[in-house]
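Hey everyone, long-time lurker, first post.

I ran two proteins through the pipeline my lab uses and got sequence/structure pairs for each. Pasting them in order. The first:
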Amino acid sequence: VGVTRPVVKHNFLVNDVTKLAETVKKAFYVAQTGRPGPVVVDVTKDATDPNIKVPYIYPKKVEMRSYNPTLVGHPGQIRKAVDLLLKAKRPMIYYGGGVVLGEASAELTELARLLGYPVTGTLMGLGAYPATDEQFVGMLGMHGTYEANMGMHHCDVLFAVGARFDDRITGEISSFCPHAEIIHIDIDPASISKNVRVDVPIVGHVKKVLTDMLEMVRETDNRGEAAVFALDSWWSQIDKWRSVKSLEYDRSSDLIKPQYVIEKLWEVTKGDAYITSDV
């Protein structure tokens, strides 16, 4: 069992067949709740002895005192996050695969449009926010767009949603978002401030936390002319970075570029098909 610990979320050892049903129930519960991950159930040979007959009763509920994932974000932390977002002059919304796993695409999109802030996503998060939306500045990081990376570097408030700040995103940690106060929503408390120190941590299910934030923003959004002017100036700067067209490619060659193929497939299918590619 010990050899699996570095690569699984949890592991169970079953040496009593009467505990098997309960353990399997717990294994699925742990695997599917909180931050999803693989769970190992190691069943000993003694527990599979065919001569031992016991009734298999699959429990309806799970009781685990040592495992109780937080689903609802702390109201005080959510309030701090909303206040910080509404005061931001150069904000960025940065989302990751947690939005996909948490099925929070609709909530993220609604909040982003309500705030009017630029949005960038990781490779694991692509698809959670509509890539055709004018607020989307593309994927960030090593393989990302110029405007997304420049926006991250110069922002004063970074709102990270279901993202883990891996090295493909941050690069050199000491120079990552040097001017920003960082808000981070994640269901796994161990992931918060793990790679990058955050100023406003919120532990909870991303869908629930975003729903609470939406309600609070609607109630307290009192941004005035100065805030509107600051945001307009920020968008003007982002549009200058966009004008670089970092994803542009040579169209004069006789060779068919992969970018061209993807573009034409998207045009033909009108965005209704799933098209995948590698980095």
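...and the second, right after it:
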Amino acid sequence: IDTLDVLVLLPFGLQVDTLPGGFLPRKAGRLREIALETLHGLEAASRELAEAGLPVRLHVLDEVPDSLGRMQFNNLDIAKSDLVVGPLMRENVGVAVPRIDRFGREHVLLTEQPERYVERGLAVRQSVASELAATELLADLVATRHDTDHVMLVVTGASDAALEAAFEAEFNAVQREKWLTPKDSIRYALLDTIQADARSVGRLADHVSPYERNVVVSVAGRSARSMWAALQTELQMNDSSDFVLFAHPELAEMPFVEGDLMEKWRLTLPLTNQIQWQDSMRWDALEDFRLRMATEPQKYAVLAHDALLDAGLRRHPWLQVKPWAEPMVWEASEASAAWSNVSWSLKRFEDLQWMPLDSCGPVPPFVPRMFYTEGDTLIPVPEKYQHLFPEEYPDALAPNKHP
């Protein structure tokens, strides 16, 4: 078998100027950490492929331009490779793309990139799982399991605005398919959008009711960390209401969200790139990485490792190697046939851990109840919900029963 030559472009920033005292700027330091973590994952994958019968040669270069603004890779580096991994940074991807396409090399992207850098044909594979696919998966789930509940989307309008628009479009499309009679539009209501921002939840409290199940959704990620903190506080303050929460995958990495609250709100979100520790077939490779690096592989190492293994397996399906996470699931773009990874698994926080949604019990039906003051006086029920209590309000009609 011919050796697989891989050109690796990572943001080491070896020529970045240091600050007084010899320290790197914060961004450059973090990028170097990510670059090293990614490289360690690629090295682990190359060892496994070599042991399985496919020699791999990694040619690692710095994607960050030198002090004169010149790229540190050239056309010959690309021409000599079978596969290009990286760059990670968007501005450097834009420079590398025309050169890679000119030589017709397979291009593996480890970071999510704009369409113009992805929609370039069959040779492009975006290995990081598509957040758009995760959003549509979440919308389908909510529209299937909570189609008659009050579903609210907290819209920040920030960097994840495209995901918010995609969720609304997918959810509403699924709901409209159920409109077979005129009154079905009331039973299967469209999405209730809450205008918020990256720091607050807007007037969410005005939309919450203790007389119905409140399904709260946000597909904003780490850029809206302050909003998520505010949302947690808002839900805690409305402790008399019933909530079910659906979220962006990055919420799982935010440490301020309390475990008991996540469980109380049946927090559900899509996750990807999760090491399959329960599979003993993966233990030897994971143990080898741990012994070499004195740590368990983190997300950038896992993604890089599995992306390179996937490239080897596509060329030689007989190779006896296994990815650390779930196998990548490829979906071809209708526009250009470029490939995107859509490998997402829906998980719910239950028993203080992330459990596959299929293994979790169903959310119990919502049972409305009446509320009383401290003096044991009944709090009047809003007219909209009086039909839920026929003994107290015998003349009340359900919204879809009104003439």
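Reply from user beta_strand_b:
Welcome! Quick read of the second one: The chain has a mean pLDDT of 92. The two ends are 76 Å apart (CA to CA).
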